[in-house]
Design goal:
Structural class: alpha/beta
Number of helices: 12
Number of strands: 4
Mean pLDDT: 89
Length: about 240
Amino acid sequence: MIVEIAGPPGLGKTTIAADLDKISRGADEDVPLLSFVEYQALDREIGEAAIMKKRRIARWCTFVPMCWRWPRLMVSVVILTLLHGRPFLRRARKAQRLLAHVLFTERLLTERTEASDPDLICIHHDGFTQCLWSMVIDSNKLRGRGLIRSIMRDYYARFRPRMILLEVDDALAASRVFGRTSKGRFNRDSSPKQRAEFNRWLGYHRELLGLLPANLERTRIEANAKPAEVAARVFAALRGHAV
């Protein structure tokens, strides 16, 4: 089973996913959780990280089979990329990352869980909705909502992940994301322009969550606490599902 953790940047989603290992090892009840270390290794071997490290032509060749296996998804992603315009190269790379995530999820299910342990829980700490969000945030307007619904419907109907939605106050989210020193678009060194646009980008994130399929199983978790406390809440939700 795939579990996708979704929430704005700065919440420590990666830290939360890593903390789940520690909690799992100390728990009385056995929760069949793919370890964070193994997840990272699989990502480097067959996943999004492995695909995105390929050269540009090799990367596109990886996605060619998706044209007949996922034709509607492929067409929708291309059109959405064009709709949101410049910067085209950066947006195209984000679109590739989205497609790489689809392939990784498929491989996780077929090569790791369905093949060996159908009950195994795989945690996407940077999931499909996050990849889709990173594709559109550079735009001055969120376009193609119908296309976004179609893209989400195709992905989530196929893999049916359980969604863990982390909810945090906007002010706290901004404080955390612009206080961190990690690499990426949002950190302590972000430009004044990026800081000024952060609330708009958070608005895009909320809109995308509002476009998720209505029948998708989801759990909302208050995430204003420290990552370790949020991880405990996430684990409790996973344990309830596993039991």
